[in-house]
Amino acid sequence: xxxxxxxxxxxxxxxxxxxxxxxxxxxxxxxxxxxxxxxxxxxxxxxxxxxxxxxxxxxxxxxxxxxxxxxxxxxxxx
Length: 78
Prior knowledge:
This protein has helices at about 20-25, 50-55, and strands at about 5-10, 30, 35-40, 45, 60-65, 70-75. It is globular. The strands form two sheets. A four-stranded antiparallel sheet has the order 4-1-5-6, with helices on one face. It has a two-stranded antiparallel sheet with strand order 2-3. Helix content is about 20%, strand content about 30%. The protein has about 80 residues and is an alpha+beta fold. The chain is built from two helices and six strands. The mean pLDDT is about 95.
């Protein structure tokens, strides 16, 4: 991993409110009052768990970037 902190974003236009992110990593993700997934903080500790949640999102609404450089972690840049 490049850094120890990631900026994690859930795209509200793409999220279909499955709740998978909050169920899979409740320390890092939560659901808002509409059932929309979101990260609990602006930056999260870099971890396999957070990466797995992003990879398992059925519509890839979760993106991860290095908090220091802004470089894409997931989805990877082509």
